[in-house]
Design goal:
By secondary structure, this protein is mainly β. It contains no helices and 17 strands. The protein has one domain. Strand 1 and strand 2 form a beta hairpin.
Amino acid sequence: MAVGILSSGSGAVALPPLAPSAERLGDLWGSGSSLAVTVASSAEGETLLAVVGSTGRKPTGITQTGVTWTERYAGNGGSQYLTVYTGVVGAGGGGALATVAFGSAGAAQASLVRLPDESAVTSVSALATATATSASPRVAAGGLAEGDLLLLAAAAASPTWSFSSVAAPHAHVVGIGGQLRSFVARAVGPEVAWDGTYSGSCAWFAAILGLA
């Protein structure tokens, strides 16, 4: 899926980069009953975000030494599930492996990211969602304030591993490939729309989520 347009109001806008940038810590696609994601180091007090795209079921939880993970959002459509967790890193820092568990085997992808220092996220809310079976996902949200922290994400069935390159340089990539594509960005106006293109028609569930 190539994410092509992030727009505000009647025209496309340049979303300002986060300062400091969101940083990807680890990403894994698989088809078992769990995903053991190797992650970069994290320090006490940092806020982490995990975005999971899966087919047919949602995760049952995430375990990682030194990190307390809490489910903040779960949505689904067309048997595609999108689940978001926040993690708080405790004393001694986070372990090198984060395990995402499921109640059964199936295709899934998990992506973990370190959020900017000023973004101690404790809630994730759906601003807009959309679901269909097509090659052209689109979701739009309104009522935003400038500077709002957003997560734009889509979970999809095959052939989602045939992604082309990212075409949204002002958004920070959280996950690419497998079942998932997601970005962290900031709003610059009251409306934001997200358009993409898959390599072929497939079931997908897309959302614009507010992080606060």
